Predict the structure.
Amino acid sequence: MAKIIVVGSSSIDLVVTSSKRPGAGETVLGESFKTVPGGKGANQAVAAARLGADVTMVGRVGDDHFGEAILNNFKFNQVSTDYVEPVTHMESGTAHIVLAEGDNSIVVIKAANNEVTPGYIEQSMDAYSGADMVMIQQEIPEDTVTHVSRVCQKLGIPLLLNPAPARSLEDEVIENAAYITPNEHEAEILFSHLSVSEALRKYPNKLFVTEGSKGVRYYDGESEVLVPSYQVEAVDTTGAGDTFNAAFAVALAEGKPIVESVRFANRAASLSVTKFGAQGGMPTRQEVEAQM
Ligand code: RIB
């Protein structure tokens, strides 16, 4: 069983569905409102656990009822919460999501996720023992991402960096990561001075650009490869990227070849969009294998 550590955000998603996305200064009547578990880190942890990995989350929650719900959800999905410490007098992270016109718009309030600091990482060092892979995203402080990249480099653990939400990164972090998985928009911000093809060639078998329903592009050392997505009827695309990242990490940590790992991850991501909520459609290992 692959052992995966996820360092990142845990949130509650407050989701409204509406047939129309309001413009600036506009009010529209929506159809529904739901609260569901989310946060890129938590989503990746839950997805990896459903795919059969032994997962430990390194994160923070608030001392509110959302924090309790987040912890219960981790336990329900068999994600270890030994390194998810509540922060006193602080709210849990929230994501405010509008699902409209076939896509989502999201505003994230980091709140307790801001307390996943380099100091907290130092306190949680025991979590990394025996890990096959560490995953990280960018809904936690920037200096924590740098710090974790150094920890992984020092301990010789491969780091999968999902650079979402988008921001530029220091060269050191890019060098320390084993795998980097931006979408097209994030890739443009990360490698603003390069075309996508130039960036892929610079980082063979390391940079994987996710292109939504088109597929995933990377350079295998000889040529550029596009591994196509599986076409499905999408209900909610929230969390598809997180499912891709988790499934990719699980497959790589199990020693699967890269192209096979991308195919496995594409399959998992395609299943994840067929149900409502970031974690609602995240498949089990059996569900993915049945489709392969
Ligand atoms: O990647 C999807 C996630 O991003 C949502 O669950 C939401 O929490 C936002 O952070």
